[in-house]
Structure prediction request, 162 residues.
Amino acid sequence: MRYHCLKEFANIPFHVVEEAKRATYEMGRYPNVLKAGSSFNHSSIMKSLRKQFGDNVGGIYIKNNPWSFYDWHIDMNRQCSINWLLKTNSNALTLHREKTEPERLNSIIYNIFPVEYVLYKPTIMDTTVEHCVINSSDEERIIFSVSLDVPFNDVKGFLSVV
Prediction:
């Protein structure tokens, strides 16, 4: 799997969850998502990630509106993300997909894997694999997403020993 939920980590602080719910979201250009800044960028885990992987490590809140679909894509300018699910519902999910026959460029048959998230816990995700977000509910979904231009296995290895 090209994602890994870190269930053993402590929950993200409650004040961060409340900040995300009250934040003012704006449409971003790259990527084209509803996003807002976060004070969690000053936390000890974020400082550790910057020390290990460089000063370009940073995070934002991302909101998926009710009844929305963030289409299949591979992220630009990052190889990996660490996402904390802050607000969700039973009809929201993130999917990874891989072609069943990668050598066939025009193949439309994929294996699809739901990404496991646990509310308030971090999930590392390989963003070089095609993924999408579906929110088929009348409730919004919010995550705190950290961008790292570092391979998935490097981040997973680092966080497994922190």
About this structure: The first strand starts at residue 3 and ends at 5. The mean pLDDT is 93.
